[in-house]
Design a protein that fits this description.
The protein is α+β, with helices and mostly antiparallel strands. The protein has eight helices and 14 strands. The N and C termini lie far apart (42 Å). The structure holds D-MYO-inositol-1-phosphate and calcium ion (CA) (2 copies). One calcium ion binds next to strand 4.
Length: 268
């Protein structure tokens, strides 16, 4: 049971919050300066800021918990047999960052036996620190947060994102997007999955979906939604785990209506 391994909860959450703030501050300082941009794929970028933030986070966590496994997007990972696994996206919203669009964050989660038990997501430009602990609620800075009360998909504001292979494989992402456009009040595509999830958790968005995501995009944000009273599944309403590429997160009230839209889309 992961809970029994959470003997050092205060130290873990303190580490996650401190390092999220420090790396966020670093991203903020570099933001706006001329940056080195490298291509991982045709449109998938990495900047020098991703790498510097990752180095800071990985070094700090490794120094404090040398036996823990660390999985981080840009691959400065340390693997081992420990049941404790830190799952890190040092910069979620890299495309925004590289273009000077002020919407990005740091995302850090700790999983025990692959079950996320705490998460922090930090938006440095707005000084918004989202954090959650399994069974203990979700917070934005000092304040507890909860999902929205919207009960009709028709009146909901949704968020989504598109995978990096959208140029070569636009379907089914485009047809899902079209369906939700006609069933909701509106859709935002802001470019950071971790922030999209946190904005579901604090009630700005009523729902979020995306395919082809990685554990570092979703591990912290999904816990945030669950701890804020929302629901997280895949597109077929099966319970979500960070290793799953599809995520559907909502306030719970509109979840069934969103699942029905996926069914409608699959049926053509
Ligand atoms: C991306 C962002 C984006 C989502 C992409 C992710 P990155 O992460 O979360 O919103 O649509 O699928 O890969 O590359 O900025 O860390
Ligand atoms: Ca990401
Ligand atoms: Ca990233």
């Amino acid at each position: 049971m992961p809970g029994s391994l959470l003997t050092d909860t205060e130290s873990f959450i303190e580490t996650a919050i401190t390092v999220a703030r420090e790396s966020g501050q670093l991203l903020k300082e570099i933001f706006g300066r001329k940056r080195e941009v490298y291509f991982k794929g045709e449109i998938d970028l990495v900047t020098d800021a991703d790498l510097r933030a990752e180095e800071l986070i990985v070094k700090t966590i490794h120094a404090r918990y040398p036996e823990h496994t660390i999985v981080s997007e840009e691959k400065r990972s340390r693997t081992g047999l420990s049941p404790y696994k830190w799952i890190i996206d040092p910069l979620d919203g890299t495309t925004n960052y590289a273009h000077g669009f002020p919407w990005f964050c740091v995302s850090i989660a700790l999983a025990i036996h692959d079950e996320p038990v705490l998460g922090t997501v930090y938006h440095p430009l707005l000084n918004q620190l989202f954090w959650a602990r399994k069974g203990a609620g979700a917070y934005l800075n000092e304040e507890p947060i909860c999902v929205s009360a919207t009960s009709k998909l028709r009146y909901s504001l949704l968020a989504t994102g598109f995978p990096y292979n959208i140029h070569t494989e636009p379907e089914p992402a485009v047809s899902r997007f079209k369906k939700f456009l006609t069933h909701s009040r509106g859709i935002r595509r802001a470019g950071s999955a971790a922030l999209d999830l946190c904005y579901v958790a604090c009630g700005c968005f009523d729902g979020f979906w995306e395919a082809n995501l990685k554990p570092w995009d979703t591990a912290a944000g999904a816990l945030m939604v669950q701890e804020a009273g929302g629901l997280v599944t895949d597109f077929q309403d099966r319970p979500f785990a960070p290793a799953m590429p599809e995520i559907l997160a909502s306030n719970g009230h509109i979840h069934g209506q969103m699942v029905a839209v996926f069914q409608e889309e699959r049926a053509g």
